[in-house]
Design a protein that fits this description.
Layout (H helix, E strand, L loop, with lengths): L10 E5 L4 H12 L3 E6 L7 H6 L5 E2 L12 E4 L9 H8 L4 E3 H8 L4 E6 L4 H14 L5 E3 L12 E2 L6 E6 L3 E3 L3 E4 L8 E4 L13 H12 L7 E5 L3 H7 L6 E5 L6 E9 L2 E6 L2 E5 L4 H16 L4 H10 L8 E6 L2 E6 L4 H14 L5 E5 L4 H6 L1 H5 L7 E5 L15 H8 L6 E5 L1 H11 L5 E5 L8 H7 L1
Parallel strand pairs: 1-2, 1-4, 2-3, 4-5, 6-9, 6-12, 7-9, 12-13, 13-14, 14-15, 19-23, 20-21, 20-23, 21-22
Antiparallel strand pairs: 7-8, 10-11, 15-16, 16-17, 18-19
Helix pairs in contact: 1-4, 5-8, 5-9
Length: 467
């Protein structure tokens, strides 16, 4: 089978095109003038609207007939069977080259200076901020960010031949679970690597935290002598890893000793003002963690030669992205937010951000746990993650398609465990009963945030319509 670079293909078919990473790559391909087709499930994804807006077609279901005669490259996601998907098998039978998303992303970045973000939590937002900052500075960056949309840029993916930089995320999850368990960032060669944090995640791939830290350190050591590791030393795990590598590094954070230390943070009026180095910056999205993410973007921009005035403009221009502490609506004095948070540390960060944003209002957290393996492995940490919420609503676990064992864990048990640390906790099962409960119990002035990496965002329309 002959190989082909996606940069030189004429017709690429994306298997699982509605995955956030796949959508971003599909839009990069479209910018290159490549014909793009795809296939996916009937289920509504956060990317449906984005694909429609950009005129990218897809068909429902995975069938060999979807591989048209002129397809010269197939890119497949790790989901939906991955390399064992029937369309992938059909392509190989026809002699059509197949790349995993991880391989294809690596190929799209060739010839560019790669700025990538690794870690657990903050990857998407930080990559979105760097993309925004470089765009505002007129650098014409290419980017592929795993999110439904970056609001100010109007797209999660773009390929610009004019610019030198390519911005993306570096995911430690498996390339094709059960078939190729190497980390997805295996194919990336970063010039600039940003690491906001490192925690134990994906226990189905990394049974111990030591397993995960080993692959992160191997990735860090790829940064070249003329590149830069940008590391948040507020995170103890990142701080330790920076001491085990000899690559060029700049640190940032609220901590004493950070090369770029955040100071004079003020919250109010729907914005965050803070100082880093000699600059004063304004950020229009909530959260201390977003101040950290913005600071990482500032360090990257400064390293890449962006002027101070453009750094200030770029940070202020950022208005968020889909499913990342996103305000989705306000009805009858009740404000609804949404976030992809699915790890205990992420839950704590989002709830702290909204508590700071709305110090006097009742905060209701609605959480849909994601995967049985993560819920079981981090069960005790999840139980302690909701301290900033006034009320906690727990939905059924959203299982991964690759999971066949519940591991003797469920959301009813999780709710009971959370009650050991929280006064008001309720288990509501699925989306319909959750919406019914919220419609009856929400009060004017409440702030509600839906949390999770599953399909919890599907209930926003019904929720906004019934409260």
């Amino acid at each position: 089978m002959t190989s082909i670079s996606p940069l030189h293909a004429k017709h690429i078919h994306f298997v699982g095109i509605k995955g956030v990473g796949m959508t971003a790559l599909a839009l990069c391909a479209k910018d290159l003038g490549i014909r793009v087709t795809g296939s996916d499930l009937e289920e509504v994804f956060v990317t449906d609207e984005t694909l429609k807006k950009h005129g990218v077609p897809w068909v429902t279901g995975f069938h060999p007939v979807n591989i048209e005669a002129d397809v010269d490259l197939v890119i497949t996601t790790g989901a939906h069977g991955g390399l064992n998907n029937p369309e992938v098998i059909a392509a190989r039978d026809k002699g059509i080259p197949v790349l995993t998303h991880a391989e294809a992303l690596g190929e799209f970045t060739r010839g560019k200076d790669l700025i990538t973000v690794a870690g657990v939590g903050g990857k998407t937002t930080t990559a979105s901020m760097v993309s925004t900052l470089l765009s505002v500075a007129g650098r014409h960056p290419s980017f592929a960010v795993g999110v439904g949309d970056i609001k100010v840029l109007g797209t999660p993916g773009r390929y610009d031949k004019e610019g030198r930089e390519f911005v993306t995320e570096a995911d430690e999850f498996a390339i094709s679970p059960g078939i190729d368990n190497r980390p997805r960032f295996t194919y990336q060669k970063p010039k600039v690597l940003i690491i906001p944090n490192i925690e134990h995640d994906h226990p189905d791939i990394y049974p111990t935290f030591e397993d995960a830290k080993r692959v992160f350190l191997e990735f860090i050591n790829r940064v070249p002598k003329d590149g830069l590791l940008i590391a948040c030393i507020d995170n103890a795990n990142v701080r330790k890893l920076t001491k085990q590598t000899h690559v060029p590094v700049q640190t940032y954070g609220f901590s004493e000793g950070a090369d770029y230390r955040i100071e004079k943070l003020e919250v109010g009026g729907g914005k965050l003002d803070f100082e880093v180095g000699s600059g004063r910056y304004t950020l229009k999205v909530p959260g201390r963690f977003n101040v950290l993410n913005a600071t990482a973007a500032i360090v990257a921009g400064e390293f890449l030669g962006v002027t101070k005035s453009d750094l200030v403009k770029g940070v202020e221009a950022y208005t968020g992205c889909k499913r990342r502490i996103e305000k989705v609506g306000e009805v009858k004095g009740i404000t609804v937010w949404d976030d992809y948070a699915h790890h205990p540390k992420e839950l704590q960060a989002v709830l702290s951000a909204l508590r700071d944003w709305y110090p006097q209002r009742r905060l209701v957290a609605v959480f849909q746990p994601h995967t049985y393996s993560r819920t079981k492995a981090l069960f005790g940490d999840f139980a302690k993650a909701f301290g900033k919420a006034d009320e906690v609503v727990i939905m059924d676990i959203y299982a991964s398609a690759r999971e066949t064992d519940t591991l003797d864990v469920d959301s009813r048990k999780l709710a009971e465990e959370i009650k050991k640390y929280h006064d008001k906790v309720v288990y509501t099962e699925g989306q319909e009963k959750t919406v019914e409960y919220l419609a009856k119990n929400l009060q004017k002035g409440d702030v509600i945030v839906t949390l999770g990496a599953g399909d919890i965002f599907h209930m926003h329309k019904d929720l906004l319509g019934q409260i």
